[in-house]
Amino acid sequence: MAQARMKLAALQAEEAKTGVKIELSQYAVQDMIPKSVAALDAGFHVFCEKPMAISSDEARAIAAAAKASGRHFGLAFTY
């Protein structure tokens, strides 16, 4: 997680960047939640590949972070 924070800090230095796309293996979904919340807290809009979370509580945590930050969270779900 520390490496992700360092990369977010580097992105924040580039004022033209307003959003991030987070792509993880479906087997690493547990990493999606803290990375999404960290990016939202850092002031970025976030777009993620599915799955967003394992439980509804995890999904609510991301939604709450988006609402608190005033940023958008998007989820790719294509069939």
Written overview of the protein:
It contains 3 helices and 3 strands. Helix 2 (29-41) packs parallel to helix 3 (56-69). 49% of the residues lie in helices and 16% in strands. The longest helix is centred in the C-terminal third of the chain and has 14 residues, at 56-69. With 79 residues, it is an alpha/beta fold. The protein is globular, with a radius of gyration of 12 Å. The protein has helices at residues 2-13, 29-41, 56-69, and strands at 19-22, 45-49, 73-76.
Q: What structural category characterises the helix and strand content?
A: alpha/beta
The percent range for helix content is 40-55%
- How confident is the prediction overall: mean pLDDT? 79
First-residue to last-residue Cα separation: 31 Å
Strand neighbour order, sheet with most strands? 1-2-3
**Total strand segments:** 3
The ordered string of helix (H) and strand (E) elements is HEHEHE
Radius of gyration: 12 Å
How is the quaternary structure best described?
single chain
Q: Tell me about the largest β-sheet.
A: 3 strands, parallel
- Shape type: globular
What is the tally of helical segments? Answer: 3
Low-confidence regions:
none
Beta percentage is 15-25%
